[in-house]
Amino acid sequence: MKSYQIGELSSLLGLSADTLRYYEKIGLLPPVTRSASGLRLYDDKDVSRLNFIRRAQRMNFTLAEIARLMEMRENPQSARSEVRALMEKKLHDVEVHIEELNTLRREMRLLINLCHRAAGGCPIIEDIDQAS
Amino acid sequence: MSIEIELFAAPGCSRCASARKSLERVVQGVGDDRVTWRTVEILDELDYAVALGVVSAPSLAINGELVFTALPSTKKLRFALEERLAAERNLP
């Protein structure tokens, strides 16, 4: 099984080493395995947890909320009902966000297609000008 | 019930002018007062175009439903209109 030292993981995930250490300190990540010389060695399960944390942060979940969702992530069958309710609420927020992104994607795709075909002038620039 | 056609056009769209002429000819040829049409300038009604699923210009919607995502042949356009007009006549 692959293991990662903190520097390598930091580059891979775009999270600073300080952030990785902080997550472990506040219990967002379980204690990380150490090498004989005391270096942290992260495994693929840690990478998976960190990817979940990153995605949830991009959705503006607080660290406290993420910590609770991690509980359910580790053991969904034993999740407390309030944690399940939080997960359901956050799932709804994610679905709304996806819908908004889909609308934005359709709009951008349309403007790009119009721009390719425009004989003179670019509709994308015109749209930006109109909006401002 | 009327049949409303919307032609989605945009500045610099070289095929939009031909689409407009083609549509005018077909609507006149069908000769039914229930058929009306308008040009929708995509940049003026962007949210509407996106909601309908318009991805390029020219596109044609009939009664609020995107039917053609490119300039259809005169024959296909006439067929689409006549099919809808026939369906109207068969309504109880």
Question: How is this fold's topology laid out?
Answer:
The complex is a heterodimer of chains A (about 130) and B (about 90).
Chain A lengths: L5 H8 L3 H9 L18 H15 L4 H12 L6 H37 L5 H9 L1
Helix pairs in contact in A: 4-5
Chain B lengths: L2 E7 L6 H15 L4 E7 L4 H7 L6 E4 L2 E4 L5 H16 L3
Parallel strand pairs in B: 1-2
Antiparallel strand pairs in B: 1-3, 3-4
Helix pairs in contact in B: 1-3
Tell me what the structure shows.
Helix content of chain A is 68%, strand content 0%. Chain A has helices spanning 6-13, 17-25, 44-58, 63-74, 81-117, 123-131. Chain A has two domains: 1-79, Multidrug-efflux Transporter Regulator, Chain: A, Domain 2, CATH 1.10.1660; 84-132. Chain A has 132 residues and is mainly alpha-helical. Chain A is built from six helices and no strands. Chain B has one domain: Glutaredoxin. Chain B has helices spanning 16-30, 46-52, 74-89, and strands spanning 3-9, 35-41, 59-62, 65-68. The relative contact order of chain B is 0.24. The mean pLDDT of chain B is 89. Chain A binds chain B through residues 103, 106-107, 109-110, 113-114, 117-123, 126-127, 130, and chain B through 10-15, 42-43, 46, 49-51, 53-57.
